[in-house]
Amino acid sequence: MTHRLYANGTGGVLGDELCTETELYMSGVMYFVHHTGDNANLGTSRQKPWATLVYALAHVAANDMIVLLDAHAETIAASQTLSLDGLKVVAEGSNNGDPTVELTSSLSDQSMFIVSGTNVALGNIKFMGGSTQTTVARVAVTGARSMIRDCYFECDAGLANNAALSWSIFGSGARLFNTKFVVTSTTVQPKYGLLSNGLSNAEMEACTFDGGDVGFSAGGYYDFSFTGVGSGPQSIRCQQMRLLNGAQFLVGTGMSGYLGISEKTGSPAIAGFAVRLPNGFRQTGDALLADSEVYLTTPPLYVHYGTGDDANGGTDELNT
């Protein structure tokens, strides 16, 4: 059974798209969190939210949604496992296109979040730096078909030996949209922004890897199979990506897929792709076709119904 909620999503104005949809229907229950609230509240009203996300995670069920209200701030002092299938943790608020909800970890060598459920979504959250991670990522995805969108990951000196976000071999179908990985350290290089180890069918769109002042030591995006360790992604599809201040994008040669870059600054290393098209396919059309650079694992084939001939090779626009 589905329930119609607010006429404009969660009742907010800015934030994750679930918070601002014209109408929102869902089968689960919606709960609200803000640090000025009280965990003694029911949490189902914007006017009487719970005070902490940690409390909310312990009191929700599969397919529920937790809405972090504008400017909520919280320090996570114990690792949280998001094991409920279909759980959505989304935030309201936006400041110059970046989230206003800030989550900070006080943990060392423990992930802030372990996303083990299927179809778990995180949206419009800013994950702050500060904790020291040498053996695990701040956010570790192990469940299939995760969705992370409109988020912001600070990549600071605490990540000198690990990543802000990791995808494991069990996280097949991971999706990452409009998310930023920004190096905020001015001295010690963080190792990775996003670290992948053996998942299949990953998808990224409109994401930014920004090396800042000192860059990533091993790559903004790094797939373990790049150095022959792990199986690597079976396929990866990326378009409208921004690689700034030398941020690298490194994948193993055994994968299939494409990387479309809309903006590139510095001298980023890009590896694992066999074919490079400097100006995409065309200047207009689908985002991938119009990206400023497109990298593919196999050459493209061109088709045109009106002027083409199946006897042609199909390897360029003149022989469709």
What are the key terms here?
mainly beta, 17-stranded mixed β-sheet, eight-stranded parallel β-sheet
Detailed description of the structure:
- This protein has a 17-stranded mixed β-sheet that branches. An eight-stranded parallel β-sheet has the order 6-9-12-15-18-21-23-25, with no helix packed on it.
- The chain is globular.
- It is mainly β and 320 residues long.
- The protein has a domain at 129-296.
- Helix 2 links the parallel strand 3 (30-33) and strand 4 (65-68).
- 4% of the residues lie in helices and 32% in strands.
- It has helices at 17-20, 53-57, 287-290, and strands at residues 3-4, 25-26, 30-33, 65-68, 73-76, 80-82, 88-91, 102-105, 113-115, 121-123, 126-127, 139-141, 147-149, 152-155, 163-167, 175-177, 180-183, 192-196, 202-205, 208-210, 219-223, 235-244, 249-250, 256-264, 270-271, 275-277, 293-296.
Topology overview:
Blueprint: E1 3-4, H1 17-20, E2 25-26, E3 30-33, H2 53-57, E4 65-68, E5 73-76, E6 80-82, E7 88-91, E8 102-105, E9 113-115, E10 121-123, E11 126-127, E12 139-141, E13 147-149, E14 152-155, E15 163-167, E16 175-177, E17 180-183, E18 192-196, E19 202-205, E20 208-210, E21 219-223, E22 235-244, E23 249-250, E24 256-264, E25 270-271, E26 275-277, H3 287-290, E27 293-296
Parallel strand pairs: 3-4, 4-7, 5-8, 6-9, 7-10, 8-11, 9-12, 10-13, 11-14, 12-15, 13-16, 14-17, 15-18, 16-19, 17-20, 18-21, 19-22, 20-22, 21-23, 22-24, 23-25
Antiparallel strand pairs: 1-2, 24-27, 26-27
